[in-house]
Amino acid sequence: MVVIRLARSGAKKRPFYNMVVTDSRNRRDGRFVERIGFYNPVAAGQETALRVDLERLAYWQGHGAQLSPTAARLVKQFGTSQAA
Known about the structure:
Number of strands: 5
Helix content: 25-40%
CATH class: Alpha Beta
Order of helices and strands: EEEEHEH
Oligomer: single chain
Number of domains: 1
CATH architecture: 2-Layer Sandwich
Largest sheet: 5 strands, mixed
Strand order of the largest sheet: 4-3-2-1-5
Shape: globular
């Protein structure tokens, strides 16, 4: 099954997550098909904390990809922040 989830990168105590499309059998930080966004939980000031390519998200969901619970929460948050 194809899933959309977060893959951790960044340094120790400075997390940074890429939102990726991958096969569910791959490791969390392993191989992925496409990077569709990112999440920076420690963004400060004018830094962008969350970015998602909604066109590619819709494309992958149209082809049967499932969002992980955390990715779904972030996409919902991104959608409401874009509407404001």
